[in-house]
Specification:
This protein is α/β, with parallel strands linked by helices. It has a domain of 132 residues. Helix content is 39%, strand content 11%. It contains 18 helices and twelve strands. The strands form two sheets. Strands 9-6-3-2-1-12-11-10 form an eight-stranded parallel β-sheet. The radius of gyration is 24 Å and the shape is globular. The mean pLDDT is 94.
Length: 521
């Protein structure tokens, strides 16, 4: 990240959460409305969750591909405007839940329409040179993803490719290439619409923070197409998976189930797969947050046959060589390191050597010492932060601020009120005020917290899998002028508009000069 002396702020709000009449957020007019409202706050960052096509459980952190875009985010109205759908095709969408995304119903409604549009595109032969250029530019992953999804959709109805008879090979790609053209077109639609939205946001002075998990899904095109890059056994199945060791939250640890990398193979290729992964994300976003950064230093590896994470072990990863390869390819890295959890000096040094800001979660700061007293030295409290961090009240994995506060006991509520000099009614804005006035260079706030919503608006509860996770949505009408003005006030008093001190002085000088010229005339 660049060190400019400027201070930044932004809003964390995933695209799926924008309520539309098509059941899910998309890259249509409602997304542009959000960008306009974000710009009016004076903030300059929009953070989204991973943009890939989701699988079982609808988690964007368990995508079918780390390179592809989620087809459900494609704007149907744009396809009508382009002539690939008729207005009648989308005239009567179903009635949707008022505050949730019903992913199964959305898939059943949108995918047939998207495939119809793709078929019309292929028949029309419009934009052929643009489409050919897209396929060539994305050749390293596009065929594998398109064939994978075609086999999943049309032959197996099951993404556990380890059970398929069709394994990845040039012969398999050739055999199903024609059928897979539909998914290539859908990725063309996605990229075209997303880059248009990104360009609009950039034009309004807003940079987009994307997000990628360090590991990929077991049932993904990434593993199907590149199984040699993961640890496997003699039968070709995964020999080891990722997780975290036992801690105060879980006596058996967490068994994530994601396959772990064969880092020796990655090193032999000069980390070429990872370089292409980062290159793609930098096409989609301006800044990247990498989830579970500590895994580049060492990760918790569990035998695939183990039912829990208890018997795992820490395995060293080639973090220094990896980031050196990235710097050689991209120069200064616009990456945020998710460095929460158990960090060692080695992990912290890896982050600092590569000039990557870490993360602070304000909610985590309210802890007690063994004697029950308030731990004012907690590193997650804003008075203990230095500049080299991105600060959040909470992320997609945490309770909303209102929900978190309401779930505290009376003693902790009293500590929070006294720390923030606030009453219960204003506690959320007192949180945001303290966060924005902190020394952390970046401050990112969930839209749920700006709207003051409780835990019914929580995005995800880790270690659970239900219809509530990832499905929260909200109307842009609920993001009112009052919310915009109040957040803008915090942006202004904290100097988090992305300008350096020198730029701000110049801006003041321009305004004074303009007023003087007006008076003289």
């Amino acid at each position: 990240m660049e060190i400019t002396g400027a201070r930044y702020s932004g809003i964390l709000f995933h695209l799926t959460s924008i309520r539309t009449k098509y059941g899910i957020g998309d890259m249509g007019r409602n997304a542009y409305e959000f960008v306009d409202k974000l710009a009016r706050t004076g903030a300059t960052l929009w953070q989204v969750l991973p943009l890939g096509p989701t699988g079982y459980g609808n988690s964007p952190y368990a995508a079918r591909s780390t390179f592809a875009g989620n087809e459900l985010l494609i704007d149907l109205e744009d396809l009508v405007d382009e002539g690939y759908l008729n207005r009648d095709d989308i005239a009567f969408p179903p009635d949707w839940p008022s505050s949730r995304v019903d992913f199964d119903r959305v898939r059943a409604y949108k995918l047939p329409l998207l495939k119809k549009a793709a078929g019309d595109f292929l028949r029309s032969r419009r934009h052929r040179s643009d489409y050919s250029a897209f396929k060539q530019a994305n050749a390293s992953w596009l065929d594998g993803y398109a064939v994978f999804m075609t086999l999943y959709d049309e032959k197996y109805q099951d993404a556990r490719w380890m059970l398929w008879e069709d394994r990845y090979s040039p012969q398999t790609l050739k055999k199903y290439s024609k059928q897979a053209e539909t998914y290539r077109v859908l990725q063309y639609f996605f990229l075209k619409q997303w880059l248009k939205l990104k360009s609009y946001a950039n034009g309004r002075g807003i940079r987009i923070i994307g997000d990628i998990p360090i590991f990929v899904g077991a049932d993904s095109a990434d593993t199907w197409s590149n199984i040699q890059l993961f640890k496997t056994d003699a039968k070709g199945g995964y020999s080891a998976i990722s997780g975290v060791p036992p801690d105060n939250f879980s006596a058996t640890g967490q068994r994530w189930g994601n396959p772990v990398y064969d880092w020796k193979k990655h090193e032999e290729t000069g980390f070429s797969w990872w370089i292409e992964r980062i290159r793609k994300q930098l096409e989609l976003c301006d800044i990247i947050r990498i989830d579970h950064f500590r895994g580049f230093d060492a990760y918790w590896e569990v035998k695939a046959s183990c039912p829990t994470a208890v018997d795992g072990k820490w395995v060293k990863a080639p973090g220094k060589a990896f980031f050196k390869a990235l710097r050689n390819e991209f120069g200064e890295l616009p990456i945020i390191a998710e460095d929460l959890g158990f960090m060692t000096d080695s992990v912290n040094n890896l982050r600092k050597e590569n000039h990557l800001p870490g993360m602070k979660i304000f909610q985590f700061g309210f802890t007690r010492l063994p004697d029950g007293s308030f731990n004012s030295w907690d590193t997650f409290l804003p008075h203990n932060w230095d500049e080299d961090f991105v600060a959040y009240p909470g992320t997609h994995d945490n309770e909303t601020l209102r929900g978190w506060y309401e779930n505290q006991d009376d003693g902790m509520k009293d500590i929070v009120r006294r720390y923030l000099s606030s009453d219960d009614k204003e506690i959320v804005w007192a949180f945001l005020n303290a966060l924005m006035l902190s020394h952390a260079r970046y401050a990112i706030v969930q839209l749920q917290d700006i709207l003051g919503l409780g835990n019914k608006a929580r995005m995800n509860t880790p270690s659970t899998c239900n219809d509530l996770n990832w499905s929260w949505s909200v109307s842009m009408d609920d993001f009112t002028d009052w919310h915009i003005a109040r957040f803008r006030h915090l942006v202004e008093i904290s100097g988090r508009d992305g300008m350096t001190f020198q730029e701000r002085l110049a801006r003041i000088g321009e305004k004074r000069s303009s007023r003087t010229s007006g008076q003289e005339s």
